[in-house]
Amino acid sequence: MIEILSDAELFELTRYRRPAEQLRELAKLGVPARRMRDNTVRVLRMHLVAPAAPHNVPALRPKLNLK
Question: Residue 15 in 3-state DSSP?
Fold first, then answer.
């Protein structure tokens, strides 16, 4: 079962009620969201529980200590 945030949870996260403002705030936070046909915003709960690593961050490489 796919879990989505409720309207109350979206408001608590963004502090906005309008979908356009919610989407803008979620984008600032780096949370993937979609606008549905009925003009509501949907966010999968998994994106907040276990967020994905940003794509533009280079992987850290361990430094060798040759002494």
Answer: coil
Q: At what angle do helices 7-14 and 19-29 cross, to 10 degrees?
A: 60
Residues 6+ apart with CB under 8 A from 10: 22, 41, 43
Q: Are 23 and 17 in contact (CB under 8 A)?
A: no
Contact (Cβ atoms closer than 8 angstroms) between residue 41 and residue 19: yes
pTM above 0.85, yes or no: no
Stretches where the chain sits below pLDDT 70 are 51-62
**Cα 50 to the center of its chain, rounded Å:** 10
